[in-house]
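User: Sequence in, structure out. Go.
Assistant: Echoing your sequence, followed by the structure tokens.
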Amino acid sequence: MLNQKLNQKLLQKLSPQQIQLMKLLQIPTANLEERIKEELEANPALEESDEYQDSYDNDYGDYESSPATDESYESRDEHDIDEFTPQLDDELDVSDYFNDYDDEVASYKLRDEYSNPDDDEDNYTAPPSGNQTCHEYLVEQLSMLQVDQRTLQIGNQIVGSIDEDGYLRRQLDALADDLAFGQNIITSLQELEYTLQIIQDFDPPGVGARDLQECLLIQLRRKNPANNPAISIAEKILLDHFDEFAKKHYDKLIRNMGITNDDLKAAIDEILKLNPKPGGTHEVSGKVDHNYIIPDFIITNQNGRLVVSLNSKNAPELRISDTYRDMLREYSLSKHKSRSQKDAIMFIKQKIDAAKWFIDAIKQRQSTMEKTMQAILGYQYEYFLTGDELKLRPMILRDVAELTDLDISTVSRVANSKYVQTEFGIFRLKDFFSESMQTESGEEVSTREIKKILTELISAEDKTKPLSDERLMNDLLERGYNIARRTVAKYREQLDIPVARLRREL
């Protein structure tokens, strides 16, 4: 028996422009320059412009005729992509590729259209470059030791395994294997331990420790306990009662150690003076060069009116290569066109098309980002005007998508990994998105507002008797925020605030 079934499937196929745009939207300004350099290396038809020119809009008027939105790309299909790929047997028409270039070379000006008018590139100061890193500092100290070559090799292996925080988290037996297979050095755990102790005497104090307990002990043992009995008590706490100290079981510490409350407080004060991340002490200047934030948007207050602009410091100007344009012109003037010439011209046209697509994708990225940020600015205008977090309105991706007529996924790509510079500091764009919660009066408030009040309550609490989650819940209820205890605990954890017991101080 023959059974026939008719199935209908709806498939969506993304064009190369769409894929390229989605990838570019996800890239923050700090990484845009690198992405553009990759495209410049891959496509010889694309090049940086030497001068600021505005002719791109005239060269590609069909792109400018409609607003730069995602729909402009969605409306294109595979036929649009392939329209510049005729058969080799047909006469290739290349006039569209260079006619508009006769008067002026096309370029794409990224900076002037969206950059801050008060910004002057000549006044831009690059972040300070890093000096000597912690690893380099340790290698320098190791090289100054009067030791044999074998100890020096083992020491370099240990130093190379120390992480940026100054800890040696790799096991000694694993280091022994590394030395055996990598440098043909057979060593024992005792020899590794001996070399590690040498490194632990280096600066900064605490470097080379295998855990927090050892790190604090190394630093504490460099202090002289003769004139300060609190140091001896602190060392005993770290050595024999570290778990009780970490969990802040102060009553148990006093009882087990037979000390007074004042003795315990003095000892804990000495411990709190120690550095839990010794590697970061020497590497502060080196980290600045890698971890500084480049804002993607800049909001300025111009006589009471907020203006948003895109930061395009890392976006060079792009244009189509003159050389490739001239090649097409020479081909058009040629009377006899061989197959090899046609193949070459096809290659050139493909590269020019790719360059056009990339330039358009950059322009589309700028337009979409500006459109999205303008919507966020309008939605959170009171906050950006005053800097008061209590002015933040509940806002989700759908709200911005409806204002901009963009897809939610597009808004998400814009908001992800992007930063905005305001008069009150630099903030992550996604921090302005929050769910809403209804107060007892029926008013919709942002969950971020509740988190701010929660932070204020904890900051003002008596540190000897910190507020429990239930007490925090009751305080919020008194202010009109109907919130459950488990929700308070969730918000507290999101704010990286420990439980009441761990916030207790003597």
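User: And one key feature?
Assistant: The two ends are 86 Å apart (CA to CA).
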